[in-house]
Amino acid sequence: MKTYEISNVYFLSNKSLITILVLYVDNLFLTSSHTIYISSFKTNLRKKFKLKDLSLIDKLLSAQTQQLSC
Predict the structure, then answer these.
(1) Cα 14–chain centre separation
(2) Angle at Cα 22 formed by Cα 46 and Cα 48, nearest 5°?
(3) How far is CA 38 from CA 13, 17, 34, 62, in A?
(4) How many distinct helices (H) and strands (E) make up the chain?
(5) CB count, 10 Å around CB of 32?
(6) Total number of domains in the chain
(7) Considering the domain boundaries, does residue 69 fall inside one?
(8) What is the reported pLDDT for 42?
(9) Full residue range of the structural domain in which residue 41 is found
(10) Strand (E) positions, 1-70?
C-alpha cells in the first residue's frame, strides 16, 4: 500500500483501492474507488469527531466533479 501527501491532499493506493482525502479550511473531502471504504472511514472519524455529512459534491475548489458508478 502506498501513501502520498501533497500539501493538504492525501492519496492512498494499492492494487484495487484508490482513495483521495482533501483538507480545506474546516472541510474534509473524501473520494475512493470503493464506497465501503468511505463508509468505514466516516464511521471511524465519527468515533472521535462531530461530523456533518454534506453528502455528494458537484464542485471542489471551482473544479467540476462527477460521481461515476463502477
Answers:
(1) 16
(2) 15
(3) 14, 11, 7, 23
(4) 1, 6
(5) 17
(6) 1
(7) no
(8) 87
(9) 2-64
(10) 2-6, 9-13, 18-24, 27-32, 59-60, 63-64
Q: How far apart are CA 54 and CA 24, in angstroms?
A: 14
- What are 38's three cell numbers? 468511505
Owner of C-alpha cell 471542489? 60
Amino acid letter, 32? S
| Residue 70 is assigned to a structural domain of this protein | no
| 15-51 pLDDT, tens digit each | 888 888 888 788 888 888 888 888 898 899 889 988 8
Q: The whole model's pTM is what?
A: 0.65
Residue with cell 458508478: 69
Structural contact between residues 24 and 37, judged by C-beta atoms closer than 8 angstroms: no
Cell digits for 19? Answer: 482513495
Here the cell at position 9 is 491532499
